[in-house]
Design brief:
8-stranded parallel sheet; 5-stranded mixed sheet; cytosine deaminase activity; hydrolase; Cytosine deaminase
C-alpha cells in the first residue's frame, strides 16, 4: 500500500519534497547531507518546474510530501535477465563460482528456448518496472546457438517495453571464440544487428592480449561499445583489468568501455593497485561494482567464514576520476540466489557493503546519474524542468529513514501518473520451472 495518494489532476504540485541534490539539474538551494527541499510542479506528464519550497502556485492541487524524498527513476546498468529466476529449476549446490558456471551452463543447454527466456525476462522487467527502474543493461549469454535465440527475444522485448524501460544488451561471449573467425564473426553480426555491445568474462588465457586486441578491433570496425566481466575472483594473480586498460590505450579505441566486478583489484598490493587504477582512469574505462553478488560468491569456502567483502576498490577508483556505479547483477539464479531487481535494495546494500556513507552527500549518483551517463543516457536518472515526470516518491525524509527500511510503500510515477506497483507472482513462473 502506498504511503499517500497523488492528486487526481493533470497539473499538480509535490510540496515540501526532499531531493537528492546530486540528481537535480537547473535548481540549487540549501542542502544538508546532499538533500535539499523543493516544490515540484508536475504538468502534462513532465516536471514543469523545480521551485523553492512554498513558492509553487497555491491554486494547484497538491500532495504535501512532508519532507518525504523524491528521486528520479533508477538505472540498473549490469543485469542478467536471461539467467534470472532459474534457481528453483537449477540451484548452485555449494554457492561457489564454479557451481554457478556449471549449473547455468547445464540449464541453458536444457531449457533456454525462446519461450523460456522470454517468460523469465518479462517477469524480471515487470518487477524492475514496479520498483521504479527506467533503464536496464543486460548481458546475454552468447555461446552459439544461444545468441541468436536470446538476442531475438531481447529485441522483441525492447520494442514492447520501449515506453516503460529502456533496454540495452551485451553479448556475453566466450573469449576463446574471438580467434575463431567464423564463430566470432557470427556473434558480432548478430550483436550489431540487434544494436548490442560486445562483452565477455576475462581471465588468463593463451593469446589473451591477441584476443583483446581482436575484440577491440571488431568493436571499432562495427561501431560497437564494449562491456566486460573482469577479474571476478579472489585470486590476486589474475589482474586482466590492467591489460584491458593498456589495450584500449594501445589500440586508440574510441568507443565506450565498461568493466564490471574487478574484484581481484582489492587483493593487490597498494603500488600495483594504484598503478592499475591510474591506467583505468587514463584509458577512460567505467567501472560497475556488483556488491550483492560479489559478497555471495567471493571468498566462499566450506566451513570457513569469509575474510573479505569481494568488492573492488570503489572509493579509490572514484577518487581517480573513474566513473563508478553499482547494479543488481544476477537475480535468483546460480550466481546469486536472491535479489528482486530493486534499485533501492541495491543502493541500500551498496551503502553498507562499500561504505558509501560518511558522507552520503553524493551517494545517490551510483544508481541514477552516473550509470545513466555511462550508458549514454544523460536524459535519465535526473530531476529537471522539462523532463518526464518519471519519479519515485518515498515517505522517508532523511538518510537514516531511507536506508533502514525497504521503502515498500513508495509511489512510482511515470509521465506524471502513479503506476500499478503490484509485483508479478512467482507462481507465474511455475509452468516453465515445475515441468
Amino acid at each position: 500500500m502506498s504511503f499517500s495518494e497523488l492528486p487526481d489532476a493533470s497539473r499538480f504540485v509535490l510540496t515540501n519534497a526532499t531531493l537528492p541534490a546530486v540528481t537535480v539539474d537547473g535548481f540549487s538551494g540549501p542542502a544538508n547531507e546532499g538533500l535539499m527541499t523543493a516544490d515540484l510542479v508536475i504538468g502534462d506528464g513532465k516536471v514543469e518546474s523545480v521551485l523553492l519550497p512554498g513558492t509553487a502556485p497555491a491554486a494547484l492541487p497538491s500532495l504535501d510530501m512532508r519532507d518525504g524524498m523524491v528521486w528520479p527513476c533508477l538505472v540498473d546498468m549490469h543485469t542478467h535477465l536471461d539467467k534470472g529466476h532459474i534457481w528453483e529449476r537449477r540451484r548452485n549446490p555449494d554457492g561457489s563460482f564454479m557451481g554457478a558456471l556449471e549449473n547455468v551452463g547445464a540449464d541453458r543447454a536444457a531449457n533456454w528456448s525462446a519461450d523460456d527466456v522470454r517468460t523469465r525476462m518479462e517477469f524480471s522487467l515487470k518487477t524492475a518496472y514496479a520498483h521504479g527502474t527506467k533503464l536496464i543493461r543486460t548481458h546475454l549469454d552468447s555461446i552459439p546457438p544461444q545468441h541468436g535465440i536470446s538476442f531475438e527475444v531481447f529485441s522483441e522485448l525492447k520494442h514492447d517495453w520501449k515506453d516503460r524501460i529502456a533496454l540495452q544488451a551485451v553479448a556475453l561471449l566466450p573469449l576463446e571464440s574471438v580467434l575463431d573467425e567464423t564463430v566470432f564473426g557470427d556473434i558480432v553480426a548478430v550483436t550489431k544487428h540487434h544494436g548490442g555491445l560486445l562483452g565477455g568474462a576475462t581471465r588468463i588465457l593463451p593469446d589473451f592480449e591477441k584476443i583483446l586486441e581482436t575484440l577491440f578491433r571488431a568493436a571499432a570496425d562495427n561501431g560497437l561499445d564494449i562491456d566486460l566481466h573482469v577479474d571476478e575472483t579472489e585470486d590476486k594473480q589474475v589482474l586482466t583489468l590492467k591489460t584491458i586498460a593498456e589495450t584500449k590505450l594501445k589500440t586508440g579505441f574510441e568507443g565506450a568501455v565498461t568493466v564490471g566486478h574487478c574484484c581481484s583489484l582489492a587483493r593487490q598490493d597498494d603500488d600495483l593497485a594504484k598503478q592499475t587504477i591510474n591506467l583505468v582512469a587514463e584509458a577512460g574505462l567505467s567501472v560497475v561494482s556488483l556488491p550483492m553478488c560479489n559478497m555471495y560468491l567471493q571468498d566462499r569456502h566450506a566451513g570457513r567464514t569469509p575474510r573479505w567483502r569481494g568488492v573492488t576498490l570503489f572509493h579509490e577508483l572514484a577518487a581517480a576520476g573513474v566513473k563508478t556505479a553499482v547494479a543488481s547483477d544476477n537475480t535468483r539464479d546460480p550466481f546469486y540466489a536472491y535479489g528482486d531487481l530493486d534499485g533501492v535494495e541495491v543502493f541500500r546494500e551498496s551503502v553498507r557493503i562499500l561504505h558509501l556513507d560518511h558522507p552520503l552527500d553524493t551517494a545517490a549518483r551510483v544508481v541514477t546519474t552516473t550509470p545513466a551517463d555511462i550508458l549514454g543516457r544523460p536524459d535519465i536518472g535526473r530531476i529537471k524542468a522539462g523532463a518526464p515526470a518519471d519519479l519515485i516518491l518515498f515517505s522517508a525524509r532523511r538518510w537514516s529513514e531511507f536506508l533502514s527500511r525497504p521503502q515498500a510503500d513508495r509511489i512510482v510515477m511515470r509521465n506524471g501518473m502513479g503506476i500499478d506497483r503490484r509485483l508479478p507472482d512467482y507462481r507465474d513462473l511455475d509452468p516453465i520451472l515445475m515441468k
